[in-house]
Amino acid sequence: MTGEKIILWGRPTSTNVQKILWLLDELAxxxxxKIVGGQHGGLDTDSFGRMNPNRTVPVLxxxxxxxxxxxxxxxxxxxxxxxxxxxxxxxxxxxHVDMWLDWHITVFWPPIRTxxxxxxxxxxxxxxxxxxxxxxxxxxxxxxxxxxxVGKVGFIARPSFTIADIPLAVxxxxxxxxxxxxxxxxxxxxxxxxxxAMPSFDSVVSAEQPIIEQRKMS
Length: 218
Hints:
This protein is α+β, with helices and mostly antiparallel strands. The protein contains eight helices and four strands; from the N terminus they run E-H-E-H-E-E-H-H-H-H-H-H. The chain has two domains: 6-81, Glutaredoxin (3-Layer(aba) Sandwich), CATH 3.40.30.10; 91-217, Glutathione S-transferase Yfyf (Class Pi), Chain A, domain 2 (Up-down Bundle). Helix content is 58%, strand content 7%. The longest helix is centred in the middle third of the chain and has 31 residues, at 91-121. The chain is globular.
């Protein structure tokens, strides 16, 4: 550990930033939050570009160390704080957590993101647009797969909460906030209910509320 307070850069309405807010609260790590991105701007400055040439959020600074990419930050924070219950050290258990972190990025999140950006937020595609229809079909398949996983052990990667649960729960929270005609299996509802009861989940709920209110006004 560096002994200096962590700095998190990013807007709280970003799902990728919400992942980090959740874990920081769960680990009770002190941090400063610099709100940038989206309507807040700041990503096109030279100073931010030096931190992250991709000009995306989140970015985490810890002393002289700068990290971008949300799942890399999740892993770093667990390793930094010794949170082995959230990111197991045993190679097989850790690989299982990593597997689900990657599944979120490559499979679970992309169709939700498509529906949110193209249909809900930007309203550039109608509900019967082939792109949206295909994305919704993928969401249904992924929710069935998710239900099977959490139905077996209660959580995603093992019988207790790990960082693998965080991105999937954040993504599911965004999906539910869109009020789409998507039914959740009881296994998924039970898993989500357990996570929503965690005090650290409040950081995600409070961050998501502006998204919900903005959608209602549009």
